[in-house]
Design a protein that fits this description.
Structural class: alpha+beta
Number of domains: 1
Distance between the termini: 36 Å
Shape: globular
CATH class: Alpha Beta
Length: 92
């Protein structure tokens, strides 16, 4: 079931399913309660990069603390995206 849906800066629909969100929070408890910020990172990122795979993009939203970012990984298939991971990270 779809937990939330948003458009990325290129106008592609990106979904966050209940299943993916539960798995993300279980693996990365630091993002529990950050679902709105996760969606904002995709809709209006501060930074954006290609992912490890051709069908993947990484979206970054500046977080509290020096050098802290919320990183959201979106996998795309047929012009539709799915949030597959999110974490707080320090990046240069």
């Amino acid at each position: 079931m779809v937990f939330a849906s948003i458009e990325d800066p290129d106008g592609r629909q990106v979904e966050l399913t209940d299943e993916h969100w539960s798995r993300i929070v279980r693996r990365r408890p630091e993002v529990a309660g950050c679902d709105v910020r996760v969606l904002r990172a995709v809709a209006a990122p501060d930074r954006r990069m290609f992912g490890r795979f051709p069908s993947e993009e990484w979206f970054y939203l500046k977080a509290r603390g020096p050098g802290q970012w919320l990183t959201v990984i979106v996998a795309y298939a047929r012009e539709r995206g799915y949030i597959v991971d999110a974490a707080r990270r320090s990046i240069p």
